[in-house]
């Protein structure tokens, strides 16, 4: 029952964080969608081919940005779990510095390729290449805000400012559409107009997010003194495996583009690019799911909270994947109307190719959700070999391999089918790995995740209590006291531990539960490990630091219980992370 309540709390938190993360993931997808719409309707199919050719470059830049963000977020999640705010500040500053340098390098390299026509490595078509070059020139103006905008949402979410990202996302979408209308449809700037519109939109997107960090209220501040270069390698080492899949997908994209150019022609490139850009809108849902899970997996791993770690994955299977299946049904049924947005001639070859893609490609999405979540957990757990093998299988071996076999006979449909076969293959690998490591078929989530048996406290060394009402608060003291006595703590300290938990839980119910009409819960965990007892109380009420109330002296009787706790207990830490109040007491 306790485990069930814990999973409910995790589920509620994940769904509360999900909308902002999905909207954030939609940004690059909307960028591609809008560009594709104006390219096919106001510029021409050759411009659509240029958008498709730029895909691997955009993927590579996104991969590096993801590597930096992923490594930084995982480190920050662990430091949040350990309540190390100094390390948080250091990683934040270093993350932004690396991002700026990365954007500068990409800008210089792509600018040189355009000016000296080195883009011949992407296409030898003398008609498409000049269009491609002009498109790149417009895109590189947005490289800096694009990389930085990949970093800030995670940090904003940590400070419970995820709504700022949502506002920035809405503003960006509006700006991007307006600029495309002006530059492409009215001023006829063609492919350069397509690119410059999204670039300028990215600057606006960054500005709305970054403005928060100029406030004195922000917990994190950019400081070159805090950007210790010794942390560069850990960020890359941790972030690379998760981003490796995208890097491999860059290689995969180049291979597939070449296959389509050889066996299908520019019409195949256009259809594949259009189908991909439509699908990217829907890929924002699993991407948002992963962003939420990554934050929570990192924090729970830092806390060595095995129960929460497995509950996150259970929520993924029980709620996220069924939600994705409903979305897939909608995509398949709406394949025709979605294709019509880009290609009005329903009798054309390019229309048929694109529509087929929207009927086949979505089938790989449930498998991808499994892949992304297991890759994320393995990153956090530092299972480098496991992650790199998965990334290689997903990025190149399965999709590119099956495409090489199927495209010559099936055309662009071969690429679509290869993506589905890839999902099946990577899922089989995850199960097979767990089977080998456990020496039997995995029987539960813990075995499927192959969690180290020494990770976290054993069930006999911890007690979990869920509180949803004042009636349940009354029993807290006795439960905590009994546990502490069982672990050999003296009667006085055991009594004080129970009293502290009851007093704080009662205070939360009295003051936190009544602030709004939402249903709230309190998660209490007492852990005994290495001769140390840790009391942790977590709630989903409005942000509140009990130390502030304990310091109030306007009424000597008011808040006497909280004051007593802070006087007796010497090691008390409070933090608000991901919208949760977390109070930790070490005895």
Question: Could you explain how this protein is built, in words?
Answer:
This protein has helices at 2-43, 45-82, 85-115, 128-139, 143-158, 162-186, 190-210, 232-263, 266-302, 306-333, 335-340, 349-360, 365-380, 384-410, 412-438, 445-449, 470-473, 476-486, 491-512, 546-550, 560-568; strands spanning 462-467, 522-529, 532-539, 572-577, 580-586. With 587 residues, it is mostly helical. It has two domains: 2-220 and 227-446, no CATH class; 459-586, Heat Shock Protein 90. A five-stranded antiparallel β-sheet has the order 1-2-3-5-4, sandwiched between helices. A hairpin with a 2-residue loop joins β4 and β5. α1 runs parallel beside α6 (162-186). The two termini are 28 Å apart.
Put the structure in a nutshell.
With 587 residues, the protein is mostly helical. Helices cover 73% and strands 6% of the residues. It is built from 21 helices and five strands.
Which structural class matches the secondary elements? mainly alpha
Q: Kindly report how far apart the N and C termini lie.
A: 28 Å
Q: Categorize the overall geometry.
A: elongated
Encode the helix/strand succession as letters: HHHHHHHHHHHHHHHHEHHHEEHHEE
* Low-pLDDT stretches: none
Largest sheet: number of strands, sense, barrel closure? 5 strands, antiparallel
How helical, in percent, are the residues? over 70%
Care to count the β-strands? 5
Radius of gyration: 26 Å
Strand content: 5-15%
Instruction: Provide the spatial order of strands within the biggest beta sheet.
Output: 1-2-3-5-4
Subunit arrangement of the protein: single chain
Average pLDDT number: 82
When the domains are counted, the total is 2
